[in-house]
Amino acid sequence: MADVNGEGASDLNADGTEKVKKKGLSGKVLVLFILLPLLLVGGGVGGAFVAGVFDGEAPDEEVVEEEEPKAPEVVVFYDLPEMLVNLDTNGAGNSFLKISVSLELNDQLALPELEKLMPRVMDNFQVYLRQLRAEDLKGAGGIYRLKEELLYRINSSVKPIQVKDVLFKEMLVQ
């Protein structure tokens, strides 16, 4: 049944069956099934390259054998004599600080040298502590600043020896 104008006529094969037009890959199918997976794989490989997955080799057995576990670090504590210091009050009464400090060192062999330099350490501590006010020691921030300042002063006093930490055993402000 063909139209007179030829419009709407279907394409027929010689045997009378309708021809089916074959389409190529449409744009959406091309993007969805080909380009998107290629971009994902390329992005993954590029990310792995940037992250260093493809860099160096696994450590050799020789290197692993050479890296033996180190002996545990020796920690040594040295107790300073107790100090009693008159704090700065700007003439408004008396205020005292009683403090006991312990020093943390990494080396047992540094103790004799530290004992030789102890007068210098005590002098630096006394000079610094005498200029403090009671307000300077209030709160955790004040104690932390005091600890850091004492650590700085002792490390500058005993320069070749390295003191790791200053530990407060007792502190009394009156």
Automatic annotation (TrEMBL):
Location of this chain's protein in the cell: Cell inner membrane; Cell membrane
Membrane topology label: Single-pass membrane protein
Domain of life: Bacteria
Transmembrane segment boundaries: 29-54
The entry's keywords: Cell inner membrane, Cell membrane, Chemotaxis, Flagellar rotation, Membrane, Transmembrane, Transmembrane helix
Keyword Membrane among record annotations: yes
Keyword Cytoplasm: no
Pfam families for this protein: FliL
Family per similarity comment: Belongs to the FliL family.
Function according to Swiss-Prot or TrEMBL: Controls the rotational direction of flagella during chemotaxis.
Protein name as annotated: Flagellar protein FliL
